[in-house]
Amino acid sequence: MEKKKQALPARRQVVMSGIRPTGFLHLGNYFGAVRNYVRMQEEYECYFMVADLHSLTTHPDTKELKANVHRVLAENIACGLDPDKVALYCQSHLYETCELYLYLCMLAYKGELEKTSTFKEKARKQPDNINAGLLTYPVLQTADIIIHRARYVPVGKDQEQHLEMARNFVNRFNHRYGEVFPEPAAFNFGEELLKIPSLDGAGKMSKSENQYATIYLSDDDELIRKKVMRAKTDPGPAERNSAKPDYIENLFLLMKLVGTGDEVKKFDEDFNNCTIRYGDMKKQLAEDMVKFVHPIREKAEAFRNDEKYLKEVMQKGAEKATKSANATMERVREAMGLKYF
Ligand code: ADP
Q1: Could you tell me the distance, in angstroms and rounded to a whole number, from the CA of residue 76 to the centre of ligand 1?
Q2: Burial level of 290, CB count in 10 A (0-12/13-18/19+)?
Q3: Pocket test for ligand 1, best of 15, 145, 158 (most atoms within 8 A of CB)
Q4: Ligand 1 atom 22: residue of nearest CA
């Protein structure tokens, strides 16, 4: 008897994102990216990677790289990412990305790459090392995303422009060679993309800058308290219901993210009545922050010390990612007319 062909389940929507192993993960990475990874892993087909190749554009010295790759993996898992549910892998283990990157380079123009704000900012910061990798960073990032034909990219606000460029490259590819890729979009669960500001009121929390104004997931309780207590404030509002300055708004945002709604409401009322005591608010925020970071730090330390486990995670992740990448690259080579036999 002829076997009835079973219908394949519709492919779940694909999600892809990555974090550079350039230092310790911080609250910006958590709320801008990792928290969404964890939320998405149940419903989507997810690919998350440690972007080690990207880190070479700004951190050419690789002495700390292995430890940093392990740290980022461990911290992601400690935040709730489950390597059995997602493909958690290392960017350099997925060789196909480099092939796709090369093809996309032919569709990216020097002028548009030079205009990218992250390129301009980084070129300013490292004038002696304005390498081609730095210039083509958005191209490699596009390859990372579309190698899995991903639609959703959970990222922070700083990545908005890169995603717009990714859509341009995708449209150019599809227009020239035929519809292969869906348009990827930045994603934050229906909300605005987040930017977690640094505690000194200048710029964003970041792995490599503003270290005293950034809360890392590895900070111990005392250090967290110290950092929060040093956050920028002022003598307080002089008039009722006045607008909050940015750096005060930032403290409220952080409290909303790590604390309870009741506290936010209380301090908000105090602010509007001009009775707010920032010292008290920071003490409360520090304790909320400690409660939030402490368990993640402990779990991450345990995973980080388990090299055997991390190796297994990377191998399994690379296997899953390679399978998905191979399927895409077959379509790409076919569409581009690169199949000669
Ligand atoms: P960093 O800027 O700390 O080196 P990456 O460039 O590796 O971080 O970014 C990893 C992810 O974390 C990206 O999705 C990025 O948008 C997000 N991210 C980084 N910093 C912040 C921040 N301060 N607020 C919100 N999201 C952030």
Answers
A1: 13
A2: buried
A3: 158
A4: 28
Hey, what amino acid is at 256?
Answer: K
- In DSSP notation, 65-118 reads HHHHHHHHHHHHHHTT--TTTSEEEEGGG-THHHHHHHHHHTTS-HHHHHH-HH
Using CA positions, which residue lies closest to atom 20 of ligand 1?
A: 28
> What residues line ligand 1, using a CB cutoff of 6 Å?
19-20, 22, 28-29, 32-33, 155-156, 158-159, 194-196, 204-207
Cα separation of 171 and 159, whole Å? 19
How do the domains of the chain map onto residue ranges? 14-187+306-336, 211-301
Q: Band of the pLDDT at 3, cuts 50, 70, 90?
A: very low
| pLDDT tens for each residue of 89-108 | 999 999 999 999 999 999 99
Both structure tokens of 257 = 């993210």
Quote the distance between the C-alpha of residue 222 and its chain's center: 27
pTM: 0.91
Can you read off the two tokens belonging to residue 52?
A: 């080690």
CATH of 211-301, one of 3.40.190.10, 1.10.240.10, 1.20.58.2190, 2.70.98.10: 1.10.240.10
Give the number of the atom of ligand 1 that is nearest the alpha carbon of residue 194: 25
Would you name the residues annotated as active-site residues?
122, 204, 207
CA–centroid distance, residue 28 to ligand 1 (Å): 6
Q: How many angstroms does the Cα of residue 214 sit away from the middle of ligand 1?
A: 12
Least confident of 36-40, 244-248, 260-264, 284-288: 260-264
192 pLDDT band, cuts 50/70/90, is confident
> Which fold would CATH assign to domain 14-187+306-336?
Rossmann fold (3.40.50)
Mean pLDDT of 116-120: 96
Side chain identity at residue 91, one-letter code: Q
Confidence of residue 11 (pLDDT cuts 50, 70, 90): low
Report the pLDDT value the prediction gives residue 87, as an integer from 0 to 100: 98
